[in-house]
Amino acid sequence: MGCRGWGLNVGALYRFAGLCVVLSLGAGCVASETRSVSNPSDIPAGKYRKVALFIENLDESERALAEQIVISALQSVGIPAISSSNLFRNRGPINPNTQASIIRKEGFDAVLYVTVLEKGAAEERVPNAYYDGNMVNVSMGFVTVGHSLTDLYVVKSDGSVYHPMLAMKTRSELQDVKSAKNVWAAETVATGHARTTNMSALFTQASQQITEKLRADQAI
Description:
220 residues
């Protein structure tokens, strides 16, 4: 059950996050979008009540913080959750079959895998904006608003104006412990201005939206 190829509107998210910065004169803003697919017939009537979490494709230091963020999001809606790092701590190297056995023994009924597909910096052009050598001018309908040139903007030699952005894309998959089936999956894109936010804020926003989507799809 895959989610690839949905074509989440990353450009629109860039523009939304950039607009937040323009309108708020520098206040931080994170935009995110999540799209999901599920197999309702495979989800138990009582939903999933205890979740084991695996964060994938991050290094050790990043994964520890990411685990805390997702666990907090799940616990905020009443779902007991524990990360794989804590679940298997001090157990030494163990194979997937042993992991599955431990998860069942500990009473988990679902496993949530969150994989970071992409993350990094980019530039997004500010629509209807130009630099006149003194001010950054942004046209908003009948009004043009001038802003001082600060590190919120990147100006090119032709006067075009860009926002330095951060972006993150994740894939989430929820697996039923008893059947070992993937019953729910989602892709999430989060973006924010690089000068007013960070990857931790993007991951926090993404985690909250993933949790909200799990609830909306009646998986938890």
